[in-house]
Specification:
It contains ten helices and 15 strands. It is of the alpha/beta class and 340 residues long. The strands form two sheets. Strands 1-4-5-6-3-2-7-8-15-12-9-10-11 form a 13-stranded mixed sheet, with helices on both faces. The protein is globular. The termini are far apart.
Length: 340
């Protein structure tokens, strides 16, 4: 029977899915909002490396985690003759080779292996119809007994980049993580190319971490500019880095010797505020020269480079393509976090 099939327990030993039309039945928790992370999944190794970064940060912050696969509308989607409602509720558990299903299933299995998703978590299914696409938007919401959640989301959008940006904005996530493929040829309708990753970093209005294949490195290099917003952003990131047991290093760069005192002052102010919060700063450096070249060079020994930028706009598009942050993202060999 179709109703019985839709409630078939997953063969992977994951939490059984219950019938639900929306995620609103998930119990609400009291207290301050949890740190929330959105990580883009497309089936490439780069995306699962991004997921590992999400778990590393999320473990420290007790975060809620959303895995997102975006695909364009497909009017001719094939379901092997099965009823579409049955396909929706079992798209992760029957080995169906539907766009996004395999990628999200692998992400879920990784979370179980890493001890992030437990088998005692409650699972709810949610669906929204999308005109012109038989599968529509779908999500599985896993909730732990302590109130933490993992969401596996299959989203339909006009383009992959548009879907990621819309979801990140509507969900008001604290951090968006996207993997940057290094020579890896992806396939499938949800593939996040280097061009898409850069567009997301350019246009997203919140914090975004663009991860690369290299995972080794000594802590996080946090770049501090001579304005208050950059110092505040450095403080916020230092809190996350410390929870992840990542050493914090500060770098401030002056274009000319005349501005070096301002750079030293900014770095010293950031260091004072961070240490006042009980977070040690492992090193502080102020240099003179080309900011992009120096940040990339100084950042090589570290696992993550953190750069902040102004919230300037022209129309709807962020002024970012020619900024220091975007050039660092383009040339750095390691992961780059851009904060606002």
């Amino acid at each position: 029977m179709a109703g019985e099939a839709s409630r078939k327990p997953p063969e992977t030993g994951e939490p059984a899915l219950r019938d639900s039309e929306s995620p609103t039945d998930v119990p609400e928790t009291s207290g301050p909002p949890r740190f929330s992370i959105l990580v883009c999944i497309d089936g490439t190794d780069a995306s699962y490396l991004a997921l590992r970064h999400a778990v590393r940060i999320g473990s420290a912050t007790d975060a809620d985690l959303t895995l997102l696969y975006v695909r364009p509308i497909d009017r001719d989607l094939q379901t092997g003759g099965m009823q579409i409602s049955v396909v929706r509720e079992n798209l992760l558990d029957w080995g169906l080779e539907l766009p996004g299903g395999t990628a999200l299933r692998r992400g879920r299995e990784m979370l179980v292996e890493l001890g992030w998703l437990g088998r005692d978590w409650q699972a709810e299914f949610a669906h929204v119809d999308v005109q012109g696409d038989p599968l529509g938007d779908n999500a599985i919401v896993y909730s732990s007994p302590k109130g933490r959640s993992v969401v596996l989301r299959l989203l339909i959008a006009p383009s992959v980049a548009a879907g990621i940006l819309d979801e990140a904005k509507l969900g008001e996530f604290d951090l968006l993580i996207v993997g940057m493929s290094e020579g890896e040829k992806g396939s499938g309708p949800g593939y996040v190319s280097r061009k898409i990753a850069r567009r997301v970093a350019r246009e997203h209005t919140g914090a975004v971490l663009v991860t690369r294949a290299r995972e080794d490195g000594d802590g996080h290099l946090v770049c501090v500019a001579s304005y208050e917003g950059s110092i505040v952003a450095a403080q916020k990131h230092a809190e996350i880095a410390s929870l992840c047991a990542a050493p914090v290093f500060l770098l401030s760069v002056a274009r000319t010797v005349d501005f070096l005192p301002d750079s030293k002052k900014s770095a010293a102010t950031a260091k004072e505020r961070i240490e006042k919060a009980g977070i040690p700063v492992s090193g502080t450096t102020a240099l003179v020269g080309d900011p992009v070249a120096l940040i990339v060079e100084q950042g090589r020994p570290h696992s993550v480079i953190v750069v902040s930028r102004f919230q300037k706009r022209t129309g709807w598009r962020q002024i970012f393509s020619n900024s220091i942050a975007f050039k660092v993202l383009k040339h750095a060999e390691n992961s780059v976090m851009i904060t606002r």
